[in-house]
Amino acid sequence: MQAYDGELGAAVARAQEGDEAAFAVAYRIVQPGLLGYLRGLVGNDAEDVASDAWLEIARDLGRFKGDGAGFRGWTATIARHRALDHLRRQKVRPRATALENDVLDLPGPHSTYEQAVESLATQHALQLVARLPRDQAEAVLLRVVVGLDGPAAARVLGKRPGAVRTAAHRGLKRLARLLGGEGVTDEGPQTLGESR
Amino acid sequence: MNGDDRQPSGGGDVGMGGQQGDSTPSGRPFARPGADAPQDFPDFPTGASSVAVDVLLASVRAAHVDSEREARAVAAFREAREQAAHTARTRRRDDWRPHAERRVGRSLRATLTALLASVTLGGVAVAAIGVSSGGDGDGEGNGRGGPSSSAPEAPSATPSESAGAAASAPGASRSDGPSDHPSQAQDTEAHCRAYEKAEGRGKAMEATAWRHLVDAAGGEANVRAYCAGQLSESDGDGKGQEPEQGQEPGQEQEPGQEQEPGRGQANSASPPSASSAVGSTGSTGGTGGTGGTVGAGDPAASTRAATPETGKPKKD
Known about the structure:
A: 196 residues
């Protein structure tokens, strides 16, 4: 996803000059990873929290300084603050419903087959991520899902890079272990791009 | 990005599958699960697991973007643009430029700030040293001679000395040697007045200033009497300044400076340069005090005052 960083940086620069279409481009590049991160943080409320975050991003875009990678970090910071606000509010007024068994978005009636499969896969993946300690889960999501480098992830989390690196490392190890427990290891030679 | 991050520990737990997804408490998606997978199954293929983790995390990313929400974000962008919100100032948390770039800007600013601060504080320190060293030199020099005795003890006993001191204060430059006497006397006075108020209360008596006062009085029991003397003397002093000045016209500014040229010069010239002020005023004040003024002072008063005076000005 970092392959998009150049494109993202250009889009952000144009958006800062007032280009609305460029802002939409930046949204489309950033939103998937941001939403994935927020799903890990707030579960089903991720879409709403992301929308709140985007309102702030749209408002404060003129303040931002940096390139595409920086924009990912900046937006992740804003989204994280929104998510923590949301969790605080929830703590005050707990909702006894959907989150009880951590069910994530089930495929809606209008979903295509692919969307339904994706939704279930996402749900499954998030259930695994949710079993990590919070610092590990956040580090993994920021590094792998949002696509931040170590220092940027550390800045988002307000921690030292070394601590975040350790947390990500442990989180990935533990995820692998959890997956191993499920027998997913049989998947064999499937490869992903090495861009990450 | 991090090939080494993906190395699994080699621990695989066959029994974990059954627990899948049943241990996450609500609302806290990252709560630590109750049981960790034990690590005693080293049969776990490394490469495959990292791929599996990649696949797993790839599915966390949202594959499609809700166009309605996108439109809302774009509308918010448009609104902010129309309200000229996009000209807002960049806060530190908005600055995500690469490290070096940011650091250059920041370090330049930090350097300037530090420079300014050091100059300012340095100036303050220099000024403070200049003033206190003026007191220092005088205290040492005059403690042995006459004039310093006029500070705590003898304004009335040696009227001519105190007149000289008082006269030079308004007339000559502020940092002229003898001009510090009135302020020292006023310090003692102020301490006495404060002592009256704070007597017996709390830790006030442990403070440095109090110890000096006690030293000057020659013991805690004597402070009250000492202060009484001081206050009445200073009252008399204040009234008598003008006539005394007239009495001894020869003691005014000019002679005062000529009498001890070394001290006067060092004190008035040195405040801008701190270290030289400390060194030179200390020595010249000392010699000037002993040599130039020992005959003029009241010997009894000077010996009494010598002990407290030497320690005092440094810490004040």
